[in-house]
Amino acid sequence: AQSVTQLGSHVSVSEGALVLLRCNYSSSVPPYLFWYVQYPNQGLQLLLKYTSAATLVKGINGFEAEFKKSETSFHLTKPSAHMRDAAEYFCAVSEEGTGNQFYFGTGTSLTVIP
Amino acid sequence: DGGITQSPKYLFRKEGQNVTLSCEQNLNHDAMYWYRQDPGQGLRLIYYSQIVNDFQKGDIAEGYSVSREKKESFPLTVTSAQKNPTAFYLCASRRDRENTEAFFGQGTRLTVV
Asked: Quick check: B31 and A32 CB within 8 A?
C-alpha cells in the first residue's frame, strides 16, 4: 500500500531564508513522486516530479527536491523564500499497477514573514 | 489552450437538494478524478475514471455519483445523501500512465445553506 506523510502542517520562514518542506512516502515498488502548490481558492499546480531519472529534480519558481530511497523521502527545498511562495504545498505518490491513482499528503501551509 | 474547466466556481445548495458539478477537459486525457478538500485533511478521492463508461469509487464515495459518457466530461453529482457536502471540490485529469502528472481545474466551492 502506498501513502504519503508530510511532517509539519504549518511552516513559517523569514523572507530570504531556506524553505524545507518534508515528505516521506511508503511504497512497495519504486514510486513516482510529485509536489504541487495551491494558492487560495485555486486548483493545484505542478511544481516538480520524480519519475526514476535524476534523483535531484528541479522545478518551477526555484524549487527543487531530492529523492532519497534509503530514507523514503522527497523533501522540497528552495534556497531563498519570497513572499509569493506563501501557499499550501502537497506531496503526492503514484506507482505502477494502482489504476492511475494518486495519493496525496495532508499538505503543508507555508507562511513567509517579511 | 488545453486545460480543465470546472463550473461553477461557487455554488450554493439548499439542504435536501441534489447538485451537479461540471468538469470538462480538452487535453485528450483518459483518466479523470474528483477530489474533495477540507481544511487540514488534504485531498480525498471521491471517484475516478480510467476510460469512458467506467468509473471506480474512491475513499469517500458515499453520497456522490458520477458518469463518464464522454472522454472530455466527468460530472459529479452531490446527492442529498451526502451528510456534510460543504467543501472545495477539485477535478483532475491525467494521461493513462502512472509516471505522469495530473492537471487540475480551478475548483468549485460548494456551500449548503
From this structure: no
Interfacial B residues in 21-80 facing A (CB < 8 Å)? 31, 33, 35, 40-43, 45, 48, 50, 56, 58
Q: For residue range B22-31, list pLDDT tens digits in order.
A: 999 999 999 9
Grouped pLDDT means (10 residues each) for chain A, 114 residues: 86 97 87 93 93 88 94 96 96 76 90 96
Closest chain A residue to B38, measured at CA = A106
Phi then psi dihedrals of residue A61, to 5 deg: 60, 25
Q: Which three cell numbers stand for residue A52?
A: 526514476
Separation CA A83–CA B53 (nearest Å): 45
CA–CA separation, A102 and A85 (whole Å) = 24
Residue B85 φ then ψ, to 5°? -80, -15
CA distances B33 to A7, A18, A55, B51, Å, are 26, 34, 28, 11
Rg of the Cα atoms in chain B = 13
Contacts of A100 in chain B (CB under 8 A): 31, 48, 50, 94, 96, 98
